[in-house]
Amino acid sequence: MSFSDLFDSEFKQRNRGHFSSIVRVALTDEKFSPEEKAFLDKLAVRLEISPAEYEEILENPLKYPINPPYLHEQRIERLYDLARIVHVDHHLGDKQELLLRKIGVGIGFNADNIQYIVDKALKLVDKEVDLDTFIFEMRSMNK
Prior knowledge:
- The protein is an all-alpha fold and 143 residues long.
- It contains 7 helices and no strands.
- Helix 1 (3-26) runs antiparallel to helix 2 (34-46).
- The longest helix has 24 residues, at 3-26.
- The N and C termini lie far apart (47 Å).
- This is Fructose 1,6-bisphosphatase.
- InterPro entries: TerB-like (IPR029024).
């Protein structure tokens, strides 16, 4: 196995784990709303989840290990990606903030602050800031 194959395999495994953890969060109420399903469809494409993997994860999200980001910056990067996906397509309509808060807690943000974090994230994404600016603003929002 070449180094690039190893990296590619690790990247795909991380994406499957990330998608699986989001599916778990979406299933906390034991079913998907149509909006959540549309979001998952879009996210699967973005994370390069094959149709077979997609169906497998929806049937059994516990199959793949959760790999929540342990570094704060990685959480912010995931929040940036998720906020952009939600915001760009407006797939979730009025429920976009609710789902983003739910997922934000699932990827490791503090539940007590999640509304403030998501509000800030969506405002930044609305301004079309780049990742570096997003990270800087999210890190310094309490200062």
